[in-house]
Amino acid sequence: MALPASIRSSVTPPELELIASEQLVDIIPLIAMDKTAFISGAYGPLRPPAKSRVPLWMATNLKLKKKCHIVPPDWLCVEFLQDRLMRETSQAEFCELPFRFAEVAKVLLDVASDDMQNPDKIRSLLKDLREARQAKSREGLQKLDHSELSLPNFCSLEINEIRPFFVRAMGVLTQVSRTTQE
Fold first, then answer.
1. Per-residue pLDDT at 78
2. What is the per-residue pLDDT across 130-139, written as a single tens digit (0 to 9) for each?
3. What pLDDT score was predicted for residue 87?
4. Between the CA atoms of 14, 61, 77 and 158, what dihedral angle is there, to the nearest 10 degrees?
5. 128 HSE (CA, 13 A, CB side)
6. Which of 15, 30, 130, 151 is deepest in the core (most CB within 10 A)?
7. What is the mean pLDDT of the chain?
């Protein structure tokens, strides 16, 4: 959802990708590596062809150096995304998705699309899913109530997009309700 720059004061999408890079993903290493300690924790040992679980930032680094294949998460496949898109367009509430699905999907599609089956279809489904969720968000803004705000199944990127608007809107609605009560 594109908001005017004057009210856009949230975390940027690249910053959200950086935060999401702490998510753990499976890799199939192409090199052997002993357990290595980093500030965020110790990862490894890596022993081909056994899968290893590492943070997304480490997986992308190894992938760019051609030292691993990244195993996409279960939810990053055509069947799952088609199911979620169908639910999103047929139900009133937001369907459940991983909290940082948009950020993780973008990073994996940018870096490891060759490790996925049908990456172009996945990109298209993610775009359609995002547009359907944005349409629901816009529709929900018309029903905004100053006394309660509930956003079940809202994802990180979506929350950050509408946060500045909601903060201002809730402030205005609170002021209006105070003046009508006086």
1. 97
2. 999 988 887 7
3. 95
4. -10
5. 16
6. 130
7. 87
Which residue blocks in the chain are alpha helix, DSSP H? Answer: 13-20, 56-64, 78-90, 101-112, 119-141, 156-181
Nearest partner of 90 among 139, 132, 144, 153, judged by Cα = 132
Nearest to 38 by CA among 49, 22, 50: 22
Q: Is residue 110 over pLDDT 80?
A: yes
CB 146 within 8 A of CB 154: no
Domains and CATH numbers, the chain: 5-21+73-170 (1.20.58.1020)
| pTM exceeds 0.85 | no
Q: Which residues, other chains included, contact 117 with Cβ-Cβ below 8 Å and sequence gap of 6+?
A: 77, 78
CB-CB contact of 132 with 89 (8 Å): yes
Exposure string of 20-44, with b = 16+ CB inside 10 Å and e = fewer, is bbebebebebeeebeeeeeeeeebe
Q: Are 46 and 88 in contact (CB under 8 A)?
A: no
Predicted pLDDT of residue 48? 95
**CA distances for 118 relative to 72, 103, 124, 144, angstroms:** 12, 19, 10, 39
